């Protein structure tokens, strides 16, 4: 039973971290990017490649994962967001980010192979550690630290306050002299770096697997929608709830119905509280 | 419809009707049948994506339900294939209704995610219910009885189904109902204001697309003659989606051309087959960034851009005598 709870917390932390990445991008651009789940995938794959493939020390692998994630975030903005937002058709960003997501997944699949490959141990530890294994507590610690760090960033720093200003009213922020385009690019790079970090920390849980992206995009989104769009605490709650629910469902009913249960949770929450647990009611639907 | 439009359609109809006689080999005929089976689904989906603007990226789930329903009904239960096709269509229509009732109320991205989740759920379910669907091993699918048991006969059957679905969607698209769907796509508020029953129209078109997906799935399964969960991977959904977006939203000919080109191109140009989805993604990205109207309207867009601008000068000639008269008569 302890093992079920720990597994649920760890996968929940992964979903929560993905939901936080969603939030960072959503705050400045009001775009829910389909590429969100693919950033941790890239972090995991490139982390494993740097450490196992190139034989670099773990901290260089971490740097590689973060750098690749940040570069991909920047690329997403340049390719899929910038021109589309300028044209302001509300459906187009969904299509363009979906296109980028498909392309990056296929490219990684061709280069890395379609089999999940093991992610190297980061901290020397025996495989007999059971529930105290690093693959469980690393993602959990990361998700909590990430949420706390984002909170500090939003409330303590000038840049963070600019993010908040843009998320509340982009036009007003622009009128006050905020370079909204530059802030948006910064948010995408930040989201990419955080996503790469997530993929690196959760790598031992998920393996370095090219098709991880779509599942994470979906589950991270469910965590976000359950917790409330735009709320970081909500993302944590939603992610952990979803992860625990998944773990207990597969413990009691077998692992075949995970997706069904996740979507069931989403539907129930959307029916009862359409704005999510901690979302604000006046969030405009996208 | 102008004369050129009729000529184009007549040309297509003639080419499709005579295809078994000029197709080079069996494989090309198979490809043409595959295009027709895809088109049965895509024509229905076109009403959802192209006309009412609901971005369903999970239609492969419905295709899968249709295919498995046909395989189980016609293969295991021994129902006549024609009835099994009808059964698959009805079942998928019901599935579309069940899926559409909650998810069509959701805004864009939520809807897309819900449909994507459904395609994953169906995949899970197929794997979980192994004794019904054969699990990961798959299921053999019976072929149709004579005269549709030969490749040529089956081609005509699928082409006829494609024609029927096309006519149905065309009838919807060109009349009031289709205009209503376009209004929903372009502005929900405006559509509501002019009295379009928004939710009912969306739901009806979605259920119709479900029925089309069921029939298409049944024909597709019979064409493949053996189905496994891997046949219905998520990328297939992406393919349907790209066909419609590339062809251009709000047209029937455009998505049809998109289906033909995107199905045939990777088969004829082998390097593209290896790239597969990368190629679809790239096409989608290019279309979204460069011609959001779709390739089908590419020529219109280019012509519009390079047409020499006529500067119209309309000199204003005041009607002086009338003005003078008006002043004389005291402004009355």
Description of the structure:
The complex is a heterodimer of chains A (286) and B (332). With 286 residues, chain A is mainly alpha-helical. Chain A has one domain: ABC transporter involved in vitamin B12 uptake, BtuC (Orthogonal Bundle), CATH 1.10.3470. Chain A contains 12 helices and no strands. Chain A has helices at 2-29, 38-53, 58-87, 92-112, 134-156, 158-168, 170-175, 180-201, 203-206, 212-227, 232-253, 258-272. With 332 residues, chain B is mainly α. Chain B is built from 16 helices and 2 strands. Chain B has helices at 3-22, 26-51, 59-76, 81-103, 108-128, 130-133, 151-174, 176-186, 188-193, 198-224, 234-247, 253-268, 270-275, 277-290, 298-306, 320-328; strands spanning 139-140, 226-227. In chain B, strands 1-2 form a two-stranded antiparallel sheet. In chain B, helix 7 (151-174) runs antiparallel to helix 10 and helix 11 (234-247) packs across helix 12. Chain B is elongated and about 95 Å long. The termini of chain B are far apart. In chain B, 46% of the residues are buried. At the A-B interface, helix 3, helix 4, helix 10 and helix 12 of A face helix 5, helix 11 and helix 14 of B.
What brief labels describe this structure?
heterodimer; A: 286 residues; mainly alpha; 12 helices; globular; B: 332 residues; two-stranded antiparallel ribbon; 1% strand
Topology, pairings included?
The complex is a heterodimer of chains A (286) and B (332).
Chain A: H1 2-29, H2 38-53, H3 58-87, H4 92-112, H5 134-156, H6 158-168, H7 170-175, H8 180-201, H9 203-206, H10 212-227, H11 232-253, H12 258-272
Helix pairs in contact in A: 1-5, 1-6, 1-8, 1-10, 1-11, 2-3, 2-8, 2-10, 3-4, 3-8, 5-6, 5-8, 6-8, 10-11, 10-12, 11-12
Chain B: H1 3-22, H2 26-51, H3 59-76, H4 81-103, H5 108-128, H6 130-133, E1 139-140, H7 151-174, H8 176-186, H9 188-193, H10 198-224, E2 226-227, H11 234-247, H12 253-268, H13 270-275, H14 277-290, H15 298-306, H16 320-328
Antiparallel strand pairs in B: 1-2
Helix pairs in contact in B: 2-7, 2-8, 2-10, 2-11, 2-12, 3-4, 3-5, 3-10, 4-10, 7-8, 7-10, 11-12, 11-14
């Amino acid at each position: 039973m302890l093992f079920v709870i720990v597994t649920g917390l760890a996968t929940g932390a992964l979903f929560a971290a993905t939901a936080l990445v969603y939030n960072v991008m959503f705050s400045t651009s009001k775009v829910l990017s389909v590429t969100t789940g693919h950033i941790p995938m890239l972090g995991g794959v490139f982390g494993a490649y740097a450490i196992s493939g190139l034989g670099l020390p773990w901290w260089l692998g971490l740097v590689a994962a973060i750098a690749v994630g940040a570069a991909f975030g920047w690329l997403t903005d340049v390719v899929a967001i910038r021109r589309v937002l300028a044209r302001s058709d509300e459906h187009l960003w969904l299509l363009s980010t979906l296109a980028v997501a498909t392309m990056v997944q296929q490219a990684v699949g061709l280069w890395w192979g379609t089999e999940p490959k093991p992610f190297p141990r980061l901290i020397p530890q025996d495989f007999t550690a059971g529930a105290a294994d690093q693959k469980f507590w690393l993602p959990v610690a990361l998700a909590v630290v990430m949420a706390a760090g984002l909170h500090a960033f939003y409330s303590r720093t000038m840049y963070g306050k600019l993010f908040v200003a843009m998320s509340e009213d982009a036009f007003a922020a622009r009128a006050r002299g905020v370079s909204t385009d530059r802030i948006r690019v910064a948010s995408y790079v930040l989201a990419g770096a955080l996503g790469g970090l997530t993929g690196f920390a959760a790598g031992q849980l998920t393996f370095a697997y090219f098709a991880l992206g779509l599942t994470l995009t979906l589950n991270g989104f469910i965590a976000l929608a359950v917790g409330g769009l735009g709320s970081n605490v909500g993302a944590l709650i939603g992610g952990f709830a979803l992860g625990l629910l998944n773990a207990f469902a597969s413990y009691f009913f077998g692992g075949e119905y995970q997706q069904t249960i996740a979507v069931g949770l989403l539907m129930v929450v959307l029916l009862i509280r359409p704005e999510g647990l901690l979302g604000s009611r006046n969030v405009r639907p996208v | 419809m102008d004369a050129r439009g009729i000529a184009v359609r007549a040309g297509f109809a003639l080419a499709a009707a005579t295809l078994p006689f000029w197709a080079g080999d069996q494989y090309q005929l198979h490809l043409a049948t595959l295009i027709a089976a895809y088109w049965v689904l895509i024509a229905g989906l076109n009403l959802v994506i192209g006309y009412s603007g609901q971005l369903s990226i999970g239609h492969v789930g419905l295709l899968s339900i249709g295919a498995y329903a046909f395989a189980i009904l016609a293969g295991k239960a021994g129902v006549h294939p024609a009835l099994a096709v009808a059964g698959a269509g009805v079942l998928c229509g019901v599935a579309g209704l069940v899926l559409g009732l909650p998810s069509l109320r959701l805004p864009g991205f939520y809807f897309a995610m819900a449909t994507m989740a459904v395609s994953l759920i169906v995949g899970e379910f197929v794997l979980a219910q192994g004794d019904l669907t054969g699990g990961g091993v798959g299921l053999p699918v019976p072929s149709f009885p004579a005269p549709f048991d030969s490749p040529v006969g089956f081609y005509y059957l699928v082409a006829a189904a494609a024609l029927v679905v096309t006519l149905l969607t065309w009838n919807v698209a060109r009349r009031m109902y289709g205009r209503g769907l376009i209004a929903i796509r372009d502005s929900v508020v405006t559509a509501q204001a002019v009295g379009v029953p928004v939710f009912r129209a969306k739901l009806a078109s979605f259920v119709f697309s479900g029925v089309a997906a069921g029939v298409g799935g049944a024909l597709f399964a019979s064409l493949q003659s053996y189905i496994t969960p891997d046949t219905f991977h998520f990328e297939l959904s992406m393919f349907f989606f790209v066909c419609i977006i590339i062809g251009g939203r709000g047209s029937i000919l455009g998505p049809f051309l998109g289906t033909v080109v995107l199905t045939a191109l990777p088969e004829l140009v082998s390097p593209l087959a290896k790239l597969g989805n990368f190629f679809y993604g790239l096409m989608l990205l290019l279309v979204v960034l460069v011609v959001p109207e779709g390739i089908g309207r590419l020529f219109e867009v280019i012509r519009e851009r390079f047409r020499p601008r006529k500067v119209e000068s309309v000199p204003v000639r005041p009607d002086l005598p009338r003005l003078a008269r008006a002043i004389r008569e005291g402004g009355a």
